[in-house]
Amino acid sequence: MISIRSVAVACSLALFAAAPAFAKVAVGEAAPAFTLTDSNGKSRSLDEFKGKTVVLEWTNAECPFVKKHYGSGNMQAQQKEAAAEGVVWLTVNSGAPGKQGAVDGAGANAVIKSSGGAQAAYLLDPEGKVGHEYGAKTTPHMYVIDGEGKLRYMGGIDSIQSAEQADIPKATQYVRQALTELKSGKAVSVSTSQPYGCSVKYGS
Questions:
Q1: Does residue 67 lie within any of the structural domains?
Q2: Tens digits of per-residue pLDDT, 31-65?
Q3: 98 phi-psi bin (left φ>0, alpha ψ -120 to 50, beta other)
Q4: Are strands 54-58 and 121-124 parallel, antiparallel or unpaired?
Q5: 150, 30 in Cβ contact below 8 A?
Q6: Which residues pair with 58 in a beta bridge?
Q7: Alpha-carbon distance 95 to 131, whole Å?
Q8: Please, are residues 91 and 51 in contact by the beta-carbon 8 Å criterion?
């Protein structure tokens, strides 16, 4: 029997097989501006959230690493915590049509309903333009942008690179930690980390 861990490792290793060219983004610099269509057909831009902290979460509902955080309720809990603090949480899908995890608006809404997702919006990036601008490599790959539009964190959601739900309580939750520190006016103590997960399923 193939274990979840072995499937997840294979999925993760796929990241290095044919890595596309990515833009270079850096913590402390302005986050790339973008406009994407959300799951309800509405045009959403980063500019509309000026003055607010924004979290970007790259996703693929079929990825074992994404299933880890949604299946356990960890991702939804953090989305709800963020919303309660006035943080805008945007889920982004950069999967190309026909690739694993790629969805249209109706598909995205079905994922939100089945998972109990509490993101502010689910954004569709089928051409992968925004994913490449941010250098998003894995699902999940997380970014935190402050109210001034500067990138303050990028990397994994937490510190244990596995697809096992049992590891979540033992891990440092980097996104939650970054949001807490920003709210307190502190510098983000861990501003970058190694993202882990399945490779983003960009088109050729």
A1: yes
A2: 999 999 999 999 999 999 999 999 999 999 999 99
A3: left
A4: unpaired
A5: yes
A6: 92
A7: 9
A8: no
Q: Are 102 and 92 in contact (CB under 8 A)?
A: no
Distance, CA of 147 to CA of 52 (rounded, Å): 4
Residue 204 within any structural domain of the chain: no
- What is the number of domains present in the chain? 1
Query: What does the pLDDT look like over 74-132, one tens digit per residue?
Result: 999 999 999 999 999 999 999 999 999 999 999 999 999 999 999 999 999 999 999 99
Q: Domain of 91: which CATH number? A: 3.40.30.10
Amino acid identity, residue 30?
A: A
Kindly list the strands in the beta sheet with 121-124, ordered across the sheet, starting from the edge strand earlier in the chain: 43-45, 35-38, 121-124, 88-93, 54-58, 142-145, 151-155
What six digits make up the tokens of 54?
Answer: 């924004």
17 within some domain = yes
Closest CA to 144 of 65, 39, 55: 55
**CA 35/CA 33 separation, integer angstroms:** 7
* First-to-last C-alpha distance (Å) of the chain: 32
pTM: 0.90
Domain that holds residue 180: 4-199
Cis-peptide, bond into residue 20, ω within 30° of zero? no
Rounded CA separation 5/162 (Å): 7
Residue that wins the pLDDT comparison between 29 and 11: 29
